[in-house]
Amino acid sequence: MGNSIGELFRITSFGESHGRCVGVIVDGCPAGLALQEEDIQKEVDKRKPGFAGTTNRLERDRVEIYSGVLNGYTTGAPICLILKNENINSSDYENNRMKPRPGHADYTAFMKYGGFNDYKGGGRFSGRITAGFVMAGAIAKLILNTINVEILAHTIQIGELIAKKQGIDAIRNNVDKNHIRCADLDSARKMVALIEEVQNVGDSIGGVIEGIAVNLPVGLGEPVFDTLEGDLSKAIFAIPAVKGVEFGSGMISATRKGSENNDCFRIENKRVVTRTNNSGGILGGMSNGMPLELRVAIKPTASISQKQQTVDMDSLEEVELSIKGRHDSCIVPRVVVVVEAMMAIVLCDFAIRAGLLRRILK
Amino acid sequence: MGNSIGELFRITSFGESHGRCVGVIVDGCPAGLALQEEDIQKEVDKRKPGFAGTTNRLERDRVEIYSGVLNGYTTGAPICLILKNENINSSDYENNRMKPRPGHADYTAFMKYGGFNDYKGGGRFSGRITAGFVMAGAIAKLILNTINVEILAHTIQIGELIAKKQGIDAIRNNVDKNHIRCADLDSARKMVALIEEVQNVGDSIGGVIEGIAVNLPVGLGEPVFDTLEGDLSKAIFAIPAVKGVEFGSGMISATRKGSENNDCFRIENKRVVTRTNNSGGILGGMSNGMPLELRVAIKPTASISQKQQTVDMDSLEEVELSIKGRHDSCIVPRVVVVVEAMMAIVLCDFAIRAGLLRRILK
Amino acid sequence: MGNSIGELFRITSFGESHGRCVGVIVDGCPAGLALQEEDIQKEVDKRKPGFAGTTNRLERDRVEIYSGVLNGYTTGAPICLILKNENINSSDYENNRMKPRPGHADYTAFMKYGGFNDYKGGGRFSGRITAGFVMAGAIAKLILNTINVEILAHTIQIGELIAKKQGIDAIRNNVDKNHIRCADLDSARKMVALIEEVQNVGDSIGGVIEGIAVNLPVGLGEPVFDTLEGDLSKAIFAIPAVKGVEFGSGMISATRKGSENNDCFRIENKRVVTRTNNSGGILGGMSNGMPLELRVAIKPTASISQKQQTVDMDSLEEVELSIKGRHDSCIVPRVVVVVEAMMAIVLCDFAIRAGLLRRILK
Amino acid sequence: MGNSIGELFRITSFGESHGRCVGVIVDGCPAGLALQEEDIQKEVDKRKPGFAGTTNRLERDRVEIYSGVLNGYTTGAPICLILKNENINSSDYENNRMKPRPGHADYTAFMKYGGFNDYKGGGRFSGRITAGFVMAGAIAKLILNTINVEILAHTIQIGELIAKKQGIDAIRNNVDKNHIRCADLDSARKMVALIEEVQNVGDSIGGVIEGIAVNLPVGLGEPVFDTLEGDLSKAIFAIPAVKGVEFGSGMISATRKGSENNDCFRIENKRVVTRTNNSGGILGGMSNGMPLELRVAIKPTASISQKQQTVDMDSLEEVELSIKGRHDSCIVPRVVVVVEAMMAIVLCDFAIRAGLLRRILK
Fold first, then answer.
1. Parallel, antiparallel, or unpaired for β B4-5 and B10-15?
2. Do B55 and B301 touch, CB atoms closer than 8 A?
3. CB within 8 Å: C302 and D250
4. What would you report as the CA-atom Rg of chain A, rounded to the nearest whole angstrom?
5. CA–CA separation, D72 vs D62, rounded Å?
6. How many other CB atoms are found less than 10 A from the CB of residue C174?
7. Fewer C-beta within 10 Å: chain B N or C terminus?
8. Average pLDDT over residues C314-326
9. To 10 degrees, the CA torsion angle through B167, B171, B172, B177?
10. Is the CB of D356 less than 8 angstroms away from the CB of B357?
11. D138 touches chain C (CB under 8 A)
12. What is the pLDDT of residues D36-82, one digit of tens each?
């Protein structure tokens, strides 16, 4: 259980890393949205490994629509999207099956599912599962476009390297210009170098992604429990390797005084806006019309080729493990589009719950 | 909508800060749990304002059980718990009704509910609403006790003051010894001084709370969406003023290498454990048997007595606002028990979903 | 668990027959609806025992609004409604606690909740619980009024006595004119006589209620699972004593040919309508614009004063039981308003899901 | 929306009659269940058209498992099951697209989805969608088998022809012996003749199916809203053509006296049982340990070849319609296995909610 998320725009994830496919069902997409496999493919391609630091697994993923679309338009029925798995080699997983990788879900999955879990390639706990999230997110983005909401995410930190803060336009323009998906092109170059350095010693490194949503109407979110922060963080923590989520001034707000942190209101073009945006565009769990801003901490990839200590779950003896196979030494750039997807899915659900994207009733 | 949380242990929040009451319904509590009003009162009292830095509103809250308990035992029926509101003065709210307080939900609530929202004392967006969470959390803690799970939270930072790390025993013993609910008694004293200082200039200050759950069985959590991190963060973001939630090494993991951050497995008393606990006791969204550890950033209280810039929502003119009335200059100590409550509610739900606390069927 | 129903208009039931109160939380009521305790009281009064055949328990129920309403208007927050229990005598229940009443939930509740269930007056399984449904239904009806949807229910059968079919106007006008809530006034008189006859021999009798919703927009319902029939029947089966629910031609449709049962389409005032209404206003689980029509079979009240065979759950011996206390010999007339309430609750939820009653977002 | 059902055992339906496939996701199946495509195929084959009265569409359906199963055992991950559509001819649907078939969902679907719905073969509103339910039901049955619960359904009425009541053994043995799936073999022959007669004049006919579940533990069901009757009826009304659902003495109970209808308790082999089973095995919405019995009224198939009156949705003129193509003149026999499937799905969910089929946690 637990493979669905959303109230009125609900996605259901299925599939495994080394199984037949990875897929997603999107239920609640309004009828009449123009939708082609290419629209979704474009987003999926952003998750592709693209440079030295990422896995050299060839993902020639082709999005296939199995249901819910007729003659290029959504029908109002559930949309089933599938990516078939190809180019799979599970031999390393067979050999190390009883030796859980440190930092990975091998041990907990084995215990929870009594050893019946699909362990190949991490099964349900592989980053590849997020390709399904990206497919659903592609649809959510198209829906949000119809009310002019735009979602942007970008890499702002790799290890200790922190990118210079960029404006919305720079982010929009630069993020596709480098494999790191960092809008500060200068930092991007240094980040690539850092990742290569780490990779050369069989290690991995973490980073931070910032996600932004602009043009949100005021009042999205359904307090007290279904808040913007609550539902966004829940969706984002479904991405493997996420260890923290913060909004606006985030963890730093803990060090501040109210007089520093409060965003004073003012009038701009007859609209109420705030002078600063420490709230990250959210007050009382609801959008306040300012850009929604969040940051996501990604831990270093657990699968490293350096030798590590683990245990043999059969013999309960301590053993050494060295992981072979294809692994990213920095997953951050590939997670950027996944953060966008999760944001789009949650915001689309809230927009529909608010009655902004009503179905047709005459 | 959005006032319920949980799958099999579900709580529904209701009531307003200056209305008739604050309350909660707990549905899914197993039958046969010994439960008295005193058990709940004890937890609610931990939320009481206790020292200079907190509001001097007299909360003589008396927990009343309205349903679901017979002769001192839960019946399996929904439990309705109510705290009547007393000692209310809403005059300041009347005067400033159209002047939204910076950093507060006044503006978004006005917009979302078309001006019909209860604005007195912040209505549904007051910290007082969390007294209902605490009542539900008291029941969740009692249920978790039956499987030996213990929940502990404590203040670890106020402003820039960071407490020294303490062991579980020190936390358990010290947290009730000071109003700051900080286990490092030395830091606690400094924190009190800092809060008084801030209060004297009509300002407020934020902080960080750490929450810990010990003795969790392996495998709680329902990936890929209903993860421990996901459901815990969603529940915790329902607490007003929370701006960030992180698990284990959290935001810091972004700066690390895999070889530093991975928790190697080893054997201890024939059980699989990890050498370090950077994962915060969670792998793949499921408990791994190590202590679950999270940290919550609390922003400085929005209501400060210093003059602030805001707008008049009628005239759309910029105006000055100075807030009177009773307000905490640091809410952190009072939120500690709320963090415990949210953790208990979520973990109780997962334990029941895992079939650990089954209802009686013969 | 299981005490909430609805997606966007969600009600949560709580309270017991002989406990402190019976109550309901309504979450999802749009802000800005004019609402007074009297509006709800009026509906609750329709459930009152009114004549010879119904219990002589004096229900001086006073509806109290505990939350969600300010200055006579709903605020968008959850609405808590409470009826305090008065005039309770549980002695008969104490004496017969281990002797389950045939046809009642005593046995199954005892087994499910391990004997901890509140057995007094039937606890959660008393018809009195439906007073909470009626309170929620009162709000749903007011919401539906804003889009001109009207809900009507009436008694059409008691035992073998079947009322003559009446038009909508006759139903609307006559149903309040007699305690049986039967629109055919002639049959109503005979029904009263029949119920008295049955009561005189310590027995009880069943009946049938018809529920109608007029002016529904086309397309309410969310197939394939959240159909009008599915959600309506689920809600109605929550009423104790309901044993069957049918729509349009219902069970009789099983005996028919397609050429008899199909409702041909035609044009009336430039709108598509059907010549007949065997579908009961529902096609493919969605409203078709014709009156929604359903029928509900109510079994005879289980609590009769005649001697019955039962068992002693302690000794596992067969024993005789004779039930004292106040019981209806025909519950049908009192259930009429409950059927209306359940219909209103479900249809209100579907209308909100369809975006017809959107919250305010500017 | 509305394409998922269930709390802990949740199925999500997708696919269209003349689209690429019909499918289902099953989330919440415990890990470790032996499962092959053949196990599911066997159930799907029972839905196949088998004799003169049913469509001659060749359904060479091959069940394919897309996820959730490894080496012949379920993994605890969501199971995706797909039946590809073959042998499709949609020409008749193209021609009559704007002429809604009486008794069918064409009109309401067109209105709800603004004309974007997949109209070919009825799209989402085709009986073929229930093949997905049957696949999910096959898994639910296997799970229920592990606690010895057995589900049986059979045809008990076609038109006015009512089969003689049969015992459980006769039903189990006879239902596969004839295409009508009627346990009274004599009536079965007459039913075939009746269906052929109706078919010869281009008409269709309805019928009644009885569903039985034996060996249920006492206490399944989660009142007050998630009752056995409520959840079973909701699930069963998702089957196209169902117009009524009743339990135990059902609609007839309306005519009865309490002294006739109450099921007295007695002791049998030290267990509490009832002398009669008018309750259909359900008291207070929970199983009482007796066989659960329900009956489902199926209306005559809407698609008949006789000329019918309808309208043209473009011109809003009244027109004649004659439906060509492959259609069942009696759908009842093919629905029998679907009723079993829906019962299994709901009961499996309740069994898991009751903690009877817990996941593995060590």
1. antiparallel
2. no
3. no
4. 21
5. 17
6. 17
7. C
8. 88
9. 150
10. no
11. no
12. 999 999 999 999 886 545 555 555 789 999 999 999 999 999 999 99
Q: What are phi and psi of C88, to 5 degrees?
A: -100, 135
Residue in chain D closest to C236 (alpha carbons) equals: D230
- Residue pair D244/C244 in contact (Cβ under 8 Å)? The answer is yes
How many other CB atoms are found less than 10 A from the CB of residue B277? 17
Residue C218 touches chain D, beta carbons under 8 Å = yes
Using a CB-CB cut-off of 8 Å, the residues of chain C touching B70 are 19, 116-118, 120
Q: What angle do CA A138, A140, A146 make, to 5 degrees?
A: 110
Please report the pLDDT score of residue D48 as a whole number.
87
CA gyration radius, chain B: 21
Q: Hey, how many other C-beta atoms are within 10 angstroms of the C-beta on B105?
A: 26
User: What is the pairing mode between strands B282-283 and B150-158?
Assistant: unpaired
pLDDT in tens, D155-201: 999 999 999 999 999 999 999 999 999 999 999 999 999 999 999 99
The CA distance from C155 to the nearest CA of chain B, in Å, is 31
Residue of D nearest to B362 (CA): D218
Residue A268 three-state SS:
strand
In contact, B330 and B54? CB cutoff 8 Å: yes
Contact B2 C27 (CB under 8 A): yes
Q: Sketch out chain C's domains with CATH numbers.
A: 4-353 (3.60.150.10)
Query: How many Å lie between the alpha carbon of B170 and the closest alpha carbon of chain C?
Result: 38
Nearest neighbour of D123 by CB, restricted to A12, A23, A77: A77
Task: Return the residue of D nearest to B30 by Cα.
Answer: D354
**Which tokens in the block code for residue D213?**
């579940």
**DSSP conformational letter for D68:** S
Selected for mutation to probe chain B from A108, A196, A197, A210 (highest B CB count within 10 Å) is A108
Cβ separation C262–D103 shorter than 8 A: yes
Q: What's the complex ipTM?
A: 0.96
- Cα D155 to chain centroid distance, Å, stands at 12
3-state DSSP assignment of residue B63: strand
Q: What's the DSSP call for residue A44?
A: H
Angle between helices D332-353 and D228-236 (to 10 degrees): 140
Length of chain C: 362
Whether B77 has its CB under 8 Å from any CB of chain C: the answer is yes
Chain C residues in contact with B74 (beta carbon < 8 A) = 116
Beta-carbon separation of B362 and D219 below 8 A? yes
Residue B266 β-bridge partners: B273
Residue A55: CB atoms within 10 Å:
19
- Of D355, D360, D361, Cβ closest to residue B359: D355
CB contact under 8 A, B219 and D362: yes
What per-residue string of b and e applies to A269-279 under the rule 16 or more CB within 10 Å gives b? eeebebeebbb
All residues of chain B having their beta carbon less than 8 Å from the beta carbon of residue D220 are 361
State pLDDT tens for residues D207-243: 999 999 999 999 999 999 999 999 999 999 999 999 9
pLDDT digits (tens, 9 = 90+) for C49-62: 865 455 555 557 89
CB–CB contact D261 C299 (8 Å): yes
The pTM of this model reads 0.97
CB-based contact (8 Å) between B289 and chain C? no
Which residues between 258 and 287 in chain D have a beta carbon less than 8 angstroms from any beta carbon of chain C? 258-267, 270, 272, 274-275, 278-280, 283-287
Task: Using a CB–CB cutoff of 8 Å, tell me whether D8 touches chain B.
Answer: yes
Question: Strand, coil or helix: what is D357?
Answer: coil
